[in-house]
Amino acid sequence: MAAATAATAATGTGTATHRLLRPANNSTPLKAPTFFHLSSSKKRSFSISCTTLSAPPAAPSVATQDRVFNFAAGPATLPESVILKAQADLFNYQGCGMSVMEMSHRGKEFDFIIKKAESDLRALLSIPSDYAVVFLQGGATTQFAALPLNLCSPEDSADYVVTGSWSDKAFKEAQKYCKAKTIWSGKPEKYTKIPAFDALEQNPDARYLHICGNETIHGVEFKDYPTPLNKDSILVADMSSHFCSKPVDVSKFGVIYAGAQKNVGPSGVTILIVRKDLMGNAQPITPVMLDFKTQAEAASLYNTPPCFALYICGLVFEDLLQQGGLVEVEKKNAKKAGILYDAIDGSDGFYVCPVEKSVRSLMNVPFTLQRSDLEKKFIEEAALEKMVQLKGHRSVGGVRASIYNAMPLAGVEKLVAFMKDFQARHP
User: Fold this and answer.
1) Minimal CB count within 10 Å: which of 20, 62, 213, 218?
2) Does domain 325-425 correspond to CATH entry 3.90.1150.10?
3) Active-site residue, 262 included
């Protein structure tokens, strides 16, 4: 029975072999292992011969027709070239005999992966040497608590500019660990604008001034950044949804943090860029995993990091550099957003974007239809045309198109063509 089972596996006629060697969609087979043929005699002796199944073809160089245009806010679309590269390396990374998902985070292979990822990110953002780059877990939301714990005592004050749901959540979390104060809120105007910086009533004793650079839900983006009034204070920014979408002068900030799942990778990685002199003064109650100094001194390896997600981030950083860096990436993003906003503004009110034009996001484009009863139909019909995840956030409704770095121009052009056709069919 054992011999028959082994022979069946080697010839590929058994259903178990199909499950082993093929992904669920029966696409390109995975690299096959070696099986052994066992033969027996009456004397119970065995002879062993090896049969190695043929290796699979190289990963395809173009995407399959089954791919959709994914307008999700996060986890979001990734560059096709990155996905195909990861697919090619999935079973046996660079000939090391194992997947990145299996290798030790302290081995030489992963040491190269994480160091190259940091080096490429530093090159992309021109990060000064007096800033630490740390790859963390827990999402940007965990940093809402880590910031006051690392930068303040319980009696210190911190200023928050609340331009949307995420900066509001950051403020509410910070109140638990310091004397956080909202110095401006866009809530009365439904988060559709950003204040004039000279109108901000800052606390001269605030340890830091916190902003959310781009509000994913409401589509409001800072085009420039305020300066803290207190000369000893610092600017802190949650850049999750526009991180690496354009150049930024890191030296203007004390801390930048971002979840990777919008522009630079899958969910599971949070990137922290912190000026080194700001580390080492965490409150005594700070959990060790939230201590900036502990994480930086351990080079992001205090505990097991999200290895595979970090590997994907590294591939994305490499891809962005190959595109010419963030100056070129911003040009592409501005072109995509311009096409979409022009279609909205040129629809004679059929589509409406509520955000003030001067602060409209290049990443997240929210809009409503003049007839709200048509919004569900719009989203459903778009999905039939392979444009998915266009439903607005549950807290605001409407439609939202997230057009991050990896969204190709063709995806935006197809959406705009659909919008015009939908309008023509619903006069």
Assistant:
1) 62
2) yes
3) yes
Of 120, 238, 291, 319, the catalytic one is 238
- Radius of gyration in angstroms for the set of CA atoms belonging to the chain, rounded to a whole number: 26
Closest CA to 210 of 138, 267, 146, 114: 146
Q: Give the model confidence (pLDDT) of 137-146 as tens digits.
A: 999 999 999 9
How many CA atoms, within 13 angstroms, populate the side-chain half-sphere of residue 224? 7
Judge residue 374's burial from the number of C-beta atoms within 10 Å of its C-beta, 0-12 exposed, 13-18 middle, 19 or more buried: middle
The answer, yes or no, to whether residue 24 has pLDDT greater than 60, is no
Per-residue pLDDT band at 126 (split at 50, 70, 90): very high
**Residues 192, 270, 115, 306, Cα dihedral to 10°:** -140
Residue 64 pLDDT: 52
Q: What's the CA gap between 107 and 111, in Å, rounded? A: 6
Sequence-distant (6+) residues with CB within 8 A of 25 are none
Residue 159 to residue 170: CA distance in whole angstroms: 11
CA distances, 86 to each of 60, 117, 339 (Å):
12, 15, 31
User: Catalytic site residue 252?
Assistant: no
Average pLDDT over residues 375-388: 98
Q: Of 120, 159, 166, 184, which residue is the catalytic one?
A: 166
What's the pLDDT band for 84 if we cut at 50, 70, 90?
very high
DSSP string computed for 257-318: EEETTTTTS-TT-EEEEEEGGG-S---TT--GGG-HHHHHHTTT-SS---HHHHHHHHHHHH
Whether the pLDDT of residue 58 is over 90: the answer is no
Tokens at 222, concatenated: 């800072």
Domain boundaries of the chain, sorted by first residue: 2-57, 89-322, 325-425
Confidence check: pLDDT of 269 > 90:
yes
pLDDT band at 65 (very low <50, low <70, confident <90, very high): low
pLDDT at 231: 86
**Which residues on adjacent β-strands are paired with residue 256?**
237, 273
Residue 205 designated active-site: no
Burial class (CB in 10 A: 0-12, 13-18, 19+), 138: middle
Characterize 244-258 residue by residue with b for buried, 16 or more Cβ atoms within 10 angstroms of its Cβ, and e for exposed: bbbebebeebbbbbb
Fold of 89-322: Aspartate Aminotransferase; domain 2 (3.40.640)
